[in-house]
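Before drawing any conclusions, I needed to go through one protein's amino acid sequence and its backbone structure tokens, quoted below without any editing.
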Amino acid sequence: MNSLTRSKNRLSAWIGASMLLALSMFGFTSSAAQAAESVQPEAVVTSVATLDASLRPPGVPTDYVITPNGYFSASCVQLVQADEKLLADGRIERANGAVRKPATCTQPHYTSNGLRIHPNGVIEAMYGQARSTVPSYSGWVLYTSYTSAKAIGRIVANWTVPAAPASAGSQVVYFFPGLEQLPNVQSILQPVLGWNGYGDKAWTMASWNCCVSGTTYHSNPINVSKGDKITGDTYSTCAAGVSCTKWAIVSTDTTTGKSTTLNTNPYSTLTWVFGGVLEAYGIGTCSQYAGSPINFTNIKVYDINKVQVASPPWAGTNVIGSGAPQCNYKIASTASTATLSY
């Protein structure tokens, strides 16, 4: 499958995903993860208002925030604490048994390619909104992926925290491996390294799952630093061969020993596998990306039987293609590595 076809398929899959509502959620919490997690309960996701005015997405309210899944109302971004777990009805249970009910998401979210998606699944183009004439880009930039004929039970990958962008402005840059469904994407499980993800002009890691019923969930972020070795591990915790609703998304800084975990339900069988992804928002110049290249190494994929996939057939996708800004984009991969250059 060529890059253009794969990119179109991904957009179609996300559109289908937005129409699937009211799916159950269930989670659990590991005491080890609780002990390791560095809690930052007041962390606030970066606001659209902080982007350079010429690079803000047309039609998106400026009080929305920038997530690895597009632009959301802050009321539709839910932090799940280390000592909490998601219940089947969407409530969140604390370790002491107390239960809280997050507010229902009532606001639409926006994709980076110009779609407004309402919580009830209605999708519309942002008609009447002129695109910026300033050459810029927001969204997935480069990635390696493949579609599995067998349900996936785990993906794990290592990479290193790069230098901050040479032009450290208001942009947001994300890196992650991940898992989704096909043909209808119901969620994306992502251990995410982000620069300026929390309005901090710094590197953090957090685990994310999006976007059932219009809400995206994330764990508490941990601070990481240039040169730190990091690992993203997303896996089913059920027995081999069991189609499991109990998954953990673990983001770990192996240099410092800190980690953050989101225990969640994948909502459906996962078969779309991403070995390494670069996603960014508010990019006007090549110097706004973080240090290139980014190398995902020791990538391991396991099927639902917990058997490692010997040679994943990774294919590279350059989403921008010939668009601007052009930053000498390149993708290289082996069975266990993905190198994204820009």
Notes: The domain at 1-342 is CATH 2.60.120.700 (Jelly Rolls).
